From TrEMBL:
SMART domains on file: DSPc, PTPc_motif
InterPro entries: Dual-sp_phosphatase_cat-dom, mRNA_Capping_Enz/RNA_Phosphat, Prot-tyrosine_phosphatase-like, Tyr_Pase_AS, Tyr_Pase_cat, Tyr_Pase_dom, TYR_PHOSPHATASE_DUAL_dom
Protein name per the record: RNA/RNP complex-1-interacting phosphatase
Residue segments, region Disordered: 170-230
Domain named Tyrosine-protein phosphatase: residues: 31-186
């Protein structure tokens, strides 16, 4: 993940256009992470982009989101409950900078296949974002196009770049897409986790309310789907997500180790990453 500014805005977040265009021949549309109002107040009004600005943009273009796949490795930017109840939300914790693991790729494929299977009767879109809606997003969308749809790697990357309005930047992602092996599609028709339905009600009720009321709206929900360290009087011990080579996180289940020590049941797991700042630590 890019470094974070003191005001909580991701570094270079303002440098990228908010929403791309639909990737031709697919239901994918990429965008940068929407920010809750308490973060958006730190950017110019014209740069503000949160869940409701996202929905406004889609409505203006005559498009409808059906599913948002959030690839960021944190839960601090916005809450799924802040989305309208017409949209489903799915979180796939994806560490930045490194090529996504095979289990992460399979989770993404399962999410997409499940949505397409349940929405054959409509044209609802699959929105995908990481921090900038570019590198992790671009890699996983292109990986799906290559592995599942059989699109040539070069064509897949060009399709994504032209639709997003920015090119994928990370060389290791591009190298793997162009010359790396295709990943297996075995098991992609199986269900893994159920998306969460938005619960904010009418979009217009929120957009038309005063800014301080919108902030209260964003703060009133519990966000227990993805556990976080409890705040205390002093800095809490680090809490790590442990991602093994065959990592799968059942809904509501987290492998953790605290105080920088790994219990015996964590031994042999491949890497330890921090959900607070999306950095690979070891």
């Amino acid at each position: 993940m890019p470094p974070r500014k003191k005001n909580g805005i991701p570094d270079r977040w303002e440098d990228y256009q908010a929403v791309g265009k639909i990737i031709s021949g697919t239901r994918f549309i990429a965008f940068k992470v929407p920010l809750k109002p308490s973060l958006c107040r730190h950017v110019e009004r014209s740069q503000a982009f949160g869940p409701w600005e996202l929905m406004q943009t889609m409505e203006k273009d005559g498009q409808e989101l059906g599913l948002i796949i959030d690839l960021t490795f944190t839960t601090r930017y916005y809450k799924p409950e802040d989305l309208p109840d017409s949209v489903f939300y799915l979180k796939i914790f994806t560490a930045g900078h490194e090529v996504p693991s095979d289990p992460t790729i399979l989770s993404f494929k399962r999410a997409v296949r499940g949505f397409l299977r349940d929405n054959t009767h409509n044209d609802k879109l699959i929105g995908v974002h990481c921090t900038h809606g570019l590198n992790r997003t671009g890699y996983l969308v292109c990986r799906y196009l290559i592995d599942v749809d059989g699109i040539d790697p070069k064509e897949a990357v060009e399709l994504f770049n032209s639709s997003r309005g920015h090119p994928i930047e990370r060389e290791n992602y591009l190298k793997d897409l162009h010359t790396g092996p295709k990943r297996s599609n075995d098991g992609m028709e199986e269900s893994e986790q159920e998306p969460i339905r938005g619960r904010s009600g009418s979009r217009h009720n929120i957009l038309d309310s005063p800014a301080h009321d919108r902030d209260r709206h964003y703060d009133r929900h519990d966000y227990n789907q993805f556990p976080r360290p409890q705040k205390k009087n002093c800095r809490p011990p680090h809490v790590w997500f442990i991602l093994g080579s065959n990592f799968q996180m059942p809904e509501g289940t987290t492998f953790i180790c605290t105080n920088n020590s790994m219990p015996s049941y964590c031994s042999g797991r491949r890497r330890v990453v921090s959900p607070r700042d999306e950095r690979t630590l070891v």
